[in-house]
Amino acid sequence: MSMFAQMSLPPFLAQRLLQAGITSPSPIQEAAIPPALAGRDVMAQAKTGSGKTLAFLLPMIERALRPVSSEGTPPLISGGSGKRGPQFLILAPTRELALQIDTELRKYAPPSVTSLAVYGGTPIERHYRGLRHAPRVVVGTPGRLLDLAGSGHLYLGAVTWLVMDEADQMLDRGFLRDIQRILGLLPPERQTLLFSATFSAEIQQLAGTMQRNPAKISVDPGISSPTTITHAYYVVPAEHSRTQLVHTLLQAVKAGERSMIFCDQKYKVRRLASKLGGESASVGAITGNHSQSQRERTLGAFRAGRLTSLVATDVAARGLDIPDVAQVIHYELPVNPNSYVHRAGRTGRAEKEGSTFLILSQAEEREYLRMVRQLRIQTTKLSLPALATLPPAAVVTEERPGRRPVQRRHSHHASPALHETRNGIGRDSRPSLRSDKPRRFGR
Fold it and tell me: SS3 for 329?
């Protein structure tokens, strides 16, 4: 099977794919779509950027286009309750990923397959209004879904199709309780699909309790990253050299290309973005503390090329499909191998070439080399280039829901002993790690 036409997709859907320039399925789509169309549960693993989103959206749209009632309205739950709810539910770990999935769905689905994305950081009344129109599909983050269900505005008893995207993070300890509560609101007779770039043995065992004889698909066995990505690292003699090296690497990208820089903690994101010149130097910042509107504006500017560099925590490491990210820079050693894989996956997408660079202290080098052996990744140690002079530090504004914007200016010589306030991480934006304190490999 090499063409979508051979998958028995509706002509409308095949035409939409053709208009988008997609004529052949990717390996994960070729493997996952047939069992999903046949009604089986699916547990699918594939590298980031491999087309997992369409692998669950296409069969979902096909299912949605089947007749559901004589009036063509969303199904009503049996038992005379008369409650109407979505037929399809897609869970995502972050607001940005939920919005991206909903955007892709609207691109390929006909108008009759109505949808609504729900997530924290935006007035819940907006979602109350959206649910009055009884969308066929709801895409959401766990916390906001529970808020809507708890208030009686969202009824989940009619869901027959459940998707968990980035399932390893969704089922991690930080989200497990919320996921279990959501599952308790769904009917047991449903089709459940789990998609992720990584599945640990523990997560596979846990997922097994939520699925029935799933089709287990792995087109990228083990923990690995796209083969189009080259991996390299630098060892810096002092902490202040990290920022200068980041600035130097940012100056080396070609016109039209983008860079992403990842830090483990929110205060480091703010401080680094400021030292790199902020938005006046085309450098944006995203953390879980930024308001949803600010995050959307920053991501929109980054996608459009008005910002060429983005400094972020792991809130931007999963699911976001941003074209032309030429390099990913790790400001320090990531806290675990999966974090490294997902960050690196922001570049080298759609078979394009990309690079990922780590900036390490001498003490971190041995730990990093142990990690890449575990991941079966080839890496190269690079000599430090001549370091460019930093631009003037910028004021970084941070908008938080219901609070005044916070402005911070960081000197290039600021003490590293800054303290991070950890309020403001909502259930919808938290990473899988339960603390911002770094945890190193093998400890």
Answer: strand
Domains 4-218 and 229-409 share a fold: yes
- Quickly count: other Cβ atoms within 10 Å of residue 237's Cβ: 9
Check residue 423 and report its DSSP letter: T
CB 175 within 8 A of CB 148: no
Beta strand residue intervals within 12-143, DSSP E: 42-45, 88-91, 115-118, 137-140
Model pLDDT for residues 139-195, shown as the tens digit of each residue: 999 999 999 999 999 999 999 999 999 887 776 656 888 988 999 999 999 999 999
On the question of pLDDT at 130 being above 90, the answer is: yes
- Whether domain 229-409 has CATH 3.30.70.2740: no
Token pair, residue 139, equals 């895409």
Superfamily of domain 4-218: P-loop containing nucleotide triphosphate hydrolases (3.40.50.300)
Q: How far apart are the first and last CA of the chain?
A: 46
Give me the mean pLDDT over the 117-143 stretch.
93
Q: Which two tokens stand for residue 221?
A: 């066995």
- Give residue 358's pLDDT: 95
Q: For residue 171, give the H/E element and its range.
A: none
Contact call for residues 288 and 270 (beta carbons, < 8 A): no
How many residues in total does the chain contain?
A: 443
Collapse the DSSP code of 161 into the 3-class scheme (helix H, G, I; strand E, B; otherwise coil) and give the result. strand
